[in-house]
Write a structure and sequence with these properties.
The protein has three helices and ten strands, in the order H-E-E-H-H-E-E-E-E-E-E-E-E. The protein is of the alpha+beta class. It starts with a helix and ends with a strand.
């Protein structure tokens, strides 16, 4: 029994984040995160990013739970504006900074996202698969120091819009010559975040599906 408690205690110490020395303020950092689009024909919208404390109680999303309005907006349109409102950095002790990258990431391409970490250790990120109704890829609160090992991400479904695959309800350059309305079909929504079931070729676009993983993400932080 004593061995069990000793092992549990040691495990707790090993898993805990290292504490700063007494009287020594934590130094500010920035981070560079590389995102590789592994899909064949699905561009990623400019990624939304957020640096935050690892103990932040509110997450970007929870599997099996309803997507927030901000996440739904990103998954359906690519805009991170709603998430920036839901996770303000001013007056929020958990969030250090938020932002959105300055351009999309095209299939088979990679780009580096510059993130202001401040004194926060965790990062969240989300990007829409543009030729879908509400598919996205995301990092949901990961310690930046663990991202030196690449993370391979599946496509997720926000569950906020029907997957009718019709251009009148999807953005993206492939739909520009078909229908540019980018409306919203709510007739048969799933209602919760889950792993996406892929494109089914039931709408206007054919051969825009993917095989998971859809993205490879890695990164590092450095003191400033």
């Amino acid at each position: 029994m004593m061995k069990f408690f000793a092992a549990t205690f040691l495990s707790t110490l090993l898993l805990a984040e290292p504490a700063a020395a007494t009287g020594t303020p934590k130094k500010k950092r920035n981070a560079e995160i590389e995102v590789v689009n592994l899909t064949y024909r699905q561009p990623f919208s400019p990624p939304f990013w957020m640096s935050h404390r690892c103990d932040m109680p509110k997450k970007l999303f929870k599997f099996g739970a309803r997507a927030s309005n901000g996440l739904a907006l990103l998954a359906e349109t690519g805009s991170g504006a709603g998430l920036m409102e839901e996770f303000p950095s001013k007056g929020n002790k958990y969030v250090c900074a938020t932002g959105q990258h300055d351009g999309p990431i095209r299939p088979s391409e990679r780009d580096t996202i510059k993130v202001r970490m401040g004194r926060c250790d965790c990062v969240s990120m989300a990007s829409m698969l543009i030729h879908t109704n509400d598919a996205f890829v995301a990092i949901n609160g990961m310690n930046i120091d663990y991202l030196y090992e690449p993370e391979f991400l599946p496509a997720l479904d926000a569950g906020s819009e029907t997957n009718d695959e019709l251009c009148k309800n999807m953005p993206g350059p492939a739909c520009a010559t078909i229908d540019e309305r980018n409306g919203r079909n709510l007739t048969d929504v799933e209602g919760f975040v889950h792993v996406h079931r892929n494109m089914q070729d039931v709408g206007d676009l054919i051969d825009f599906g993917w095989l998971n993983p859809t993205a490879k993400v890695s990164g590092y932080a450095y003191e400033i």
